[in-house]
Amino acid sequence: MASIARKISLLGATGALGSHIAGALKAAGHDVTAVQRKDSTKPAPEGLKSVKVDYQNKEELISTFTGQDVVISAVPFPTLDSEKTIIDACIAASVKRFMPSEYTTMLESPFAINLPIAKEKVLVRQYLSSVITSASSPTTWTSVNTGAFLDMALKYGVLGPNPMSKKAIFHDGGDKVIAVSLLSDIATAIVKLLETDSKFEAAANQPVYVCSAAVTERRLTKIVSEVTGIDFGTPEQVSVKELIEASDERLKNGDQSAIINYYFQMMYGEGYKGGDFMKFNWNERLGLRIMSEQELKSAIQQILGN
């Protein structure tokens, strides 16, 4: 079946993930417009049209989105306040599909709303579900959930091995399986969701979970050691429960840098369903591969420049 070319507005097109999405959509033959903030000084990705608007001006957004098939948000750190106007404009413009800036590990647990790093994304999902309530609505939504961003996790050493410090940290033993995704694979997944009407319709009004691999911190440490030659020694053992207790205290004292630690609660915490990611996985339905050991090793070599 031939792929369908769609008219797509992309918010956040110049970001780390957004730029990958922009390139993949353009390469797939879609008509892509980068919707940038009025005060943005960043050039739009090469080959894309660009329009600058006030993200909080509903009328400007309606005008921009009218005639578009899909609106994709890849803005960093979305909040309900920032996304609500965009969602309302999509509905008013009869956009066929809105994809929020979710791209996170696991939002299906009711506990996710308690996490500072996930609360706003949960609120956006809840708002979407409340305003798009009928199968006959001209506007639908699909969120894409991806596991941890492998490109960034490896570079900054947050999932076991840290190539910069040459040390490793294992959370709750280092043997819990989590999903990870390459930025390029996330972009490919979005292209797959849009390429045919059957896939497009199957994903309406629900989350879609995709990943590049399912790994443990212990396994990542072993592979990174093989790739780089670094001996990470005896890993530091960290209790996620104790880490979150300490992070709660840091946040109370105004230390916002502690927010990153709540990813570990989302991935490993009891009841947060991080280990259930693969039960929700759409890779097979979309024709996406799960990386083999050699593919994972090659990806790590490329990310770390070895």
Topology:
Layout: E1 7-11, H1 16-27, E2 31-37, E3 49-53, H2 58-65, E4 70-73, H3 80-92, E5 97-99, H4 119-131, E6 140-145, E7 148-149, H5 150-156, E8 161-162, E9 167-171, E10 178-181, H6 183-194, H7 197-202, E11 206-209, E12 213-215, H8 217-228, E13 236-238, H9 240-252, H10 262-268, H11 283-286, H12 293-304
Parallel strand pairs: 1-2, 1-4, 2-3, 4-5, 5-6, 6-11, 7-10, 9-13
Antiparallel strand pairs: 8-9, 10-12
Helix pairs in contact: 1-6, 2-3, 3-4, 8-12, 9-10
The structural domain count equals 2
CATH architectural type of the largest domain: 3-Layer(aba) Sandwich
Number of helices: 12
Q: What's the Cα radius of gyration? A: 20 Å
CATH class of the largest domain: Alpha Beta
Shape: globular
* Oligomer type: single chain
Largest sheet: 7 strands, parallel
Intertermini distance = 39 Å
Task: Kindly state the number of beta strands.
Answer: 13
* CATH fold assignment of the largest domain: Rossmann fold
Output the strand order for the largest sheet.
Answer: 3-2-1-4-5-6-11
The helix content, as a percent range, equals: 25-40%
Low-pLDDT runs of 5+ residues are none
Order of helices and strands: EHEEHEHEHEEHEEEHHEEHEHHHH
Class by SSE composition: alpha/beta
Under CATH, the homologous superfamily of the largest domain reads NAD(P)-binding Rossmann-like Domain
> How much of the sequence is in beta strands?
15-25%
Pfam family, one: NmrA
Domain NmrA-like: 7-229
Keywords: NADP, Oxidoreductase
Organism: Penicillium cataractarum
